[in-house]
TrEMBL record:
UniProt keyword Transferase present: yes
Cofactor: Mg(2+)
Superkingdom of this protein's organism: Bacteria
Transmembrane spans: none
Pathway: Cofactor biosynthesis; molybdopterin biosynthesis
Record keywords, A-Z: Magnesium, Metal-binding, Molybdenum, Molybdenum cofactor biosynthesis, Transferase
Function of the molecule: Catalyzes the insertion of molybdate into adenylated molybdopterin with the concomitant release of AMP.
Organism field: Pseudoluteimonas lycopersici
Coiled coil residues, start to end: none
Protein name from the UniProt record: Molybdopterin molybdenumtransferase
Enzyme Commission identifier(s): 2.10.1.1
Amino acid sequence: MIGVEEAIARIRAASSALSAERVALADARGRVLAEDVVAPMSLPPFDNSAMDGFALRANGNAIAAGSEFAVEGEQAAGDVARAARGEACEIMTGARMPDGFDSVVPVEDVEVLERDDAQRPSRIRIKSDAAFGQHVRRGGEDMLAGAVALAAGVVLDPFACMLLDALGVREVAVRRKPRVAVFATGRELVADPWRELASGEIRDSNGPYLEAKLREAGAEVVRRATLPDDVETFVAAVRDALALGVDAVISTGAVSMGRYDFVPEALAMLGAETVFHKLRMRPGKPQLFAILPQGALFFGLPGNPISTAVGQRLLVEAALRRMLGMPDETRWRLPLAEDARKKPGNASIQKAALRLHADGGVRVQPLRGQESFRIAPLREANVWMLLPEDGERVSAGTLVDVLPPSHMQAALLGSGT
Ligand SMILES: Nc1nc2c(c(=O)[nH]1)N[C@H]1C(S)=C(S)[C@@H](COP(=O)(O)OP(=O)(O)OC[C@H]3O[C@@H](n4cnc5c(N)ncnc54)[C@H](O)[C@@H]3O)O[C@H]1N2
Ligand code: MOO
Ligand SMILES: [Mg+2]
């Protein structure tokens, strides 16, 4: 039996970046850049005023309080470049600096001495010393044309899109979304939320959970179904999914030791190569990973809801990140808020909550109810923590691995198709 890190390493080795496609920036939110974006222009594009006030020519010198200037004309945001004339020019925030002007005095730091017939200031006195170049936003100060604006592998979240919109980038090369199929197995499962449960039945919660999390992680769920405990039906469903050209098939249930745990048999029938089955990890021990004949990946996640959730987060997301050309994830290392218990000999992945403490530090709080059937503690959870194989107690204050919420790494990935 292999450990968690070896399992992740094997999954990464089996996953490669998908092809790129060009899409309009407006449709690219949440997608992952496949190529660096080079800034086609500088930001700001031209020297402009940061304040409403008066543009002056300081010519490299400070301007003393009490200095007076004749004002000629005005320059508003949107006005074209203007040739230098006069000693001062009325200027608005965002307006292009007129040629030859280099400093701006805000309107509130100015006394208007005279006005023209249209009641516009024609002579001003500045109230306090002004520094050369003040309140001017220089062209290219934020970003220079030709600089790498965003690197390949970056998620186009709203911050990234704000930059690209400002740069006038119309189209970007992004990775194709991984296409996945999700099959929840078990004849006890009821997919239709309107149907009354018969004796022995439960609702399918893994299927909708996986669909939501896979989308959030950047995948497109092209098929999702609830299947009975029947190997032939399962094999047929996987073949149909492969015919749709999926990159991965993800199932839940039927990977343990029960009479109806048929997934290993189905994989043999499909001619798949099983890379691992069972990990030194709790919960989620019977995780299965295989490669289907056409190269699609197969994840057999154990049926208990928490085992499914940790398999998706720890294993499936490692593959999706490679497919999307994203950097492999780096875990956070944070101190435990209190002692945590675990079984020796197995890594333990636990429901946990990052909490901000009065001292300003963030600590990882292990939550009550770690059993793999318990989903109610997830109401409090915001991360998973991963404790090492050795030992049965990890004491408060120890730095532990934390898997951050995937949306914090993957931003708004796949919030719709
Ligand atoms: N004799 C042994 N029995 C079990 C072992 C073992 O080592 N020896 N391992 C246990 C562990 S650990 C796990 S995890 C589970 C894994 O079971 P399976 O992957 O075979 O899953 P099922 O048997 O189909 O279901 C397990 C459990 O989860 C519920 N379930 C399944 N699918 C869903 C779903 N879509 N939504 C909600 N709940 C679901 C199912 O009803 C069962 O209660 O095996 C242990 N047994
Ligand atoms: O490994 Mo199972 O997932 O403990 O419940
Ligand atoms: Mg079972």
